[in-house]
Amino acid sequence: MLAVRWYLRYSLSYRDLVEMLEERGLSLAHTTIMRWVHRYGSDLDKLVRRYLKKTNDSWRVDETYIKVKGKWMYLYRAVDSEGNTIDFYL
C-alpha cells in the first residue's frame, strides 16, 4: 500500500516506485504496482487525503552517519523547504 500512497501523493512513475521499493528490499514489477493503483487507489485516496501534510515543490536530502546497534550506517532524510520530513531511508 505504500507504493499506492506514494503514487497518489508524489506523482511518481510506476518504475520510479519499483526502484524505491528495491532500495528497501522489495522486488516488484511495475505492472503489479499499476494493478494495485487501479484496484486500491481511489479507496486509499479517500481514506488518507485528509491526513496528508501539504508539501511544497522544493525538496532536499540530508545524509547523516549514525551508529545503530553498534554498527555505523547512513541515514538519508528527504525534507521540504519548511523542514517537514517527506521520507527517510536507513
TrEMBL record:
Pfam family, one: DDE_Tnp_IS240
InterPro entries: DDE_dom, IS_Transposase, Transpos_IS6
One Gene Ontology MF term: DNA binding
Keyword vocabulary terms for this entry: DNA recombination, DNA-binding, Transposition
GO biological process: DNA recombination; transposition
Domain of life of the native organism: Bacteria
Domain (DDE) ranges: 57-90
PANTHER family hit by this protein: BLL1675 PROTEIN
Annotated protein name in UniProt: Transposase
Organism of origin: Bacillus cereus VD133
